[in-house]
Specification:
Layout: H1 5-18, E1 23-29, H2 32-47, E2 51-58, H3 65-80, E3 86-90, H4 93-109, E4 119-122, H5 128-135, E5 146-150, H6 158-163, H7 174-184, E6 186-187, E7 199-200, H8 221-250, H9 267-271, E8 274-276, E9 282-284, E10 295-302, E11 308-316, E12 326-328, E13 356-360, E14 369-373, E15 378-379, E16 389-390, E17 395-397, E18 404-406, E19 408-410, H10 417-442, H11 447-451, H12 454-474, H13 480-514, H14 527-551, E20 555-559, E21 566-572, H15 576-599, H16 610-632, H17 637-667, H18 675-680
Parallel strand pairs: 1-2, 1-3, 3-4, 4-5, 6-7, 19-21
Antiparallel strand pairs: 5-10, 8-9, 10-11, 11-12, 13-14, 15-16, 17-18, 20-21
Transmembrane segments: 418-440, 456-476, 488-513, 525-549, 577-600, 612-632, 644-665
Family: Belongs to the G-protein coupled receptor 3 family.
Membrane topology: Multi-pass membrane protein
Length: 681
């Protein structure tokens, strides 16, 4: 009628896990019970990552000198000096009887200046009551101990039964008289005992007046098991009697006598027993023919007069759902007075805080370790993690490396200072270009404007207007459409701009060559030729862009690794080769313009823009040659900013170099903007 010890051992492990005690001592009696406890607990502890600080066995008795000396060394060197605050003691009453004197002596002597700060975890086989009578030893060392006892409950009228016990009644058993003599230290008349009692037993002694260390008025777990066993047997016999009565009635006509009842014939009826006892608890056997009562967890509280009381603080309920069979109430527990912190710690190494991991110590058990900080980019969100874990690509570790924080999506926008500065410059240059266009349109009939090919000039100014608007596409959130428009718009618009500059330069050269007598170049001089030249250059660039779009177009791209804490949203160019083809083609036109303008710089100033075009192309080429290495070394929004800066710088260079001097003459030196002045020069 006693539950299996396996449930008790499982409960001990659950207790250790509840208090996070991972470094515990194992002490067992030198008997079969202690050996079984050791063999059962060790694999259970190992599976739950709990280490045994020591494995010791006590001698069977402590009365021989050699055993006393050995036990003292064992207690002193192993148990007291161990860092393990929790010690599991497996054994019987005789085992603890052998150990207790040495524990008390170590407690009094305060060995090595270290108080014995231990939590004793005692199995159900130990019974203080059974060892108290002959010794009455010091109980203070076991203050705060945690005991596993067979489950018991308050049985009705049991206390009344104890109060009515009287050893002077006739036909009383001898055990009661012996017990009375032992606990009350009195002598019955005509007793042959050699002990000198303090007085004679009167029968007026009350069991409830005894301290709980001598006698408990409540029913113990073992007594409760016997109580249930007697009732289970009674129910089994009753069911057997009913069954045999039915058989006898069936055989009455045949006048046959039933055979005598054998013990083994009770087994089926005993297995099927199920009843509620007087304490209101259901008594039945489980599938393994074990009583499903479980164990109580008690806390030992001692008092200065060496008395003690065991308080129920928990339960192992085998009938509870899985995961809820173990329960304990910490608020009811009393700990040993020597502990500086409660509940006490029982670990080999302090817990590694979040943000660090365990680092195994060579040559020691896995419960002994150092703490090492997590490597960069990894976290430990809980205590005592064996390894740090990495964050997902869209998260990053916080400063303490204890949790992963979502990354913010970052791209160049109008809302940040850099984006606002770029937008302001783009708008400023756009307005300046628009102003230049208005000035030229207002003074389109003046000699200076007419001499510089008005249609080509208007086309150039319009393309510059579009160039200054291009950054606004780059400042929008990268999406599939915006990524396609960025480079395509930039490539085509800039090609129109550079081809216009080249066409103006070539037109000037052709105009002067055509003025020579007998020149065949006259047919190449005219507005249509310049327009066709610009259109042809633009179509070639548009063809390159079309191939780019058709084969490997730009697309939105998330860069999750370049900047910690940010996801850079940008545009992947798709085909890098075609991107540089677009830039290379514009560079070719710019270099060609620079070369032609350089050789045409000595033509007459009145009709010649070559000097200004030379300077503007030199500036243009410098900007874009510098752009390539800077662009390749940049990432994210800085890459976009570099390209926008190159667009603004080169466009502003063209605007200032080519149209700055002309606006100066038109607006401030009108005396130079007359036909006579131009012809004179």
């Amino acid at each position: 009628m006693v539950p299996s010890d396996d449930h008790q051992y499982t409960g001990i492990v659950e207790l250790l896990l509840h208090f996070s005690w991972t470094w515990v001592g194992l002490l067992a009696g030198n008997n079969d019970s202690g050996e079984k406890c050791m063999q059962t607990l060790q694999p259970l502890l190992s599976r739950k990552h709990i280490c045994s600080a020591f494995l010791e066995r006590t001698p069977q008795t402590s009365y021989e000198y050699n055993n006393i000396h050995l036990l003292y060394l064992q207690v002193n060197q192993v148990i007291v000096k161990s860092k393990a605050s929790a010690v599991i003691f497996c054994g019987n009453s005789a085992s603890i009887l052998a150990l207790q004197p040495m524990l008390a002596q170590c407690e009094r002597e305060n060995v090595a200046g270290t108080p014995m700060r231990k939590v004793w975890i005692l199995t159900a086989q130990l019974d203080f009551i059974g060892t108290t009578y002959p010794t009455r030893w010091d109980m203070q060392v076991f203050q705060g101990s945690i005991s596993f006892t067979v489950h018991s409950n308050e049985v009705q009228r049991f206390r009344d039964f104890l109060q009515l016990l009287n050893p002077f009644e006739e036909n009383g058993d001898d055990f009661l008289k012996q017990f009375w003599t032992l606990v009350f230290r009195c002598l019955f008349p005509n007793s042959n005992t050699e002990e000198k009692p303090s007085g004679s037993c009167t029968g007026d002694e009350k069991l409830e007046d005894l301290p709980s260390s001598d006698f408990e008025m409540s029913m113990t777990g073992h007594s409760y098991s016997v109580y249930n066993a007697v009732y289970a047997m009674a129910h089994a016999l009753h069911n057997t009697f009913l069954h045999r009565s039915k058989q006898r009635a069936a055989m009455e006509g045949e006048m046959q006598e039933l055979p005598k009842l054998q013990a083994w014939q009770l087994h089926p009826f005993l297995r099927s027993v199920s009843f509620n006892n007087s304490a209101g608890e259901k008594v039945s056997f489980g599938e393994n023919r074990e009583l499903e009562t479980g164990f109580d967890i008690t806390n030992l509280v001692t008092f200065p007069n060496n008395s003690y009381v065991k308080i129920k603080v928990g339960r192992i309920d085998l009938e509870a759902p899985p995961g809820k069979q173990f329960s304990i109430h910490e608020d009811k527990m009393v700990w040993h007075k020597s502990f500086l912190q409660v509940p006490p710690h029982s670990v080999c190494s302090p817990s590694c805080p979040p943000g660090s991991r365990k680092k195994k110590k060579e040559g020691e058990k896995f419960c002994c370790y150092d703490c090492a900080p997590c490597p960069e980019g990894r976290i430990a969100s809980q205590k005592d993690m064996n390894d740090c874990i990495g964050c997902s690509e869209d998260h990053y570790p916080n400063k303490d490396q204890t949790q992963c924080i979502p990354k913010t999506i970052s791209f160049l926008t109008f809302g940040e200072p850099l984006g606002m500065s770029i937008a302001f410059l783009s708008l400023l240059f756009f307005l300046l270009t628009l102003l230049v266009l208005v000035i030229f349109a207002k003074h389109q009939d003046t000699p200076l404007v007419r001499a510089n090919n008005r249609d080509l000039t208007y086309t150039l100014l319009t393309s510059l207007l579009l160039c200054f608007l291009c950054p606004f596409i780059f400042l929008s959130q990268p999406e599939r459409v915006s990524c396609l428009l960025r480079q395509m718009t930039f490539g085509v618009v800039f090609t129109v701009t550079v081809s216009c500059v080249l066409a103006k330069t070539v037109t000037v050269v052709l105009a002067f060559v055509a003025t020579k007598p007998g020149s065949r170049m006259r047919k190449w001089v005219g507005k249509r030729v310049a327009s066709a030249f610009v259109l042809t250059c633009t179509i070639i660039q548009a063809g390159i862009c079309t191939v780019w779009l058709g084969t490997s177009p730009p697309f939105p791209h998330f860069d999750k690794h370049y900047v910690t804490g940010e996801i850079i949203l940008g545009c992947n160019e798709g085909s890098v080769a075609l991107f540089y083809c677009v830039l290379g083609y514009m560079g070719f036109l710019a270099i060609l313009s620079f070369v032609v303008a350089f050789f045409a710089r000595k033509l007459p100033d009145s009709f010649n823009e070559a000097k200004f075009i030379t300077f503007s192309m030199l500036l243009f080429c410098s900007v874009w040659i510098s752009f390539v290495p800077v662009y390749l070394s940049s990432k994210g929004k800085h890459m976009v900013a570099v390209e926008i800066f190159s667009i603004l710088a080169s466009s502003a260079g063209l605007l200032g170099s080519i149209f700055g001097p002309k606006c100066y003459i038109i607006m401030l030196r009108r005396d130079l903007n007359i036909r006579e002045q131009l012809m004179r020069n």
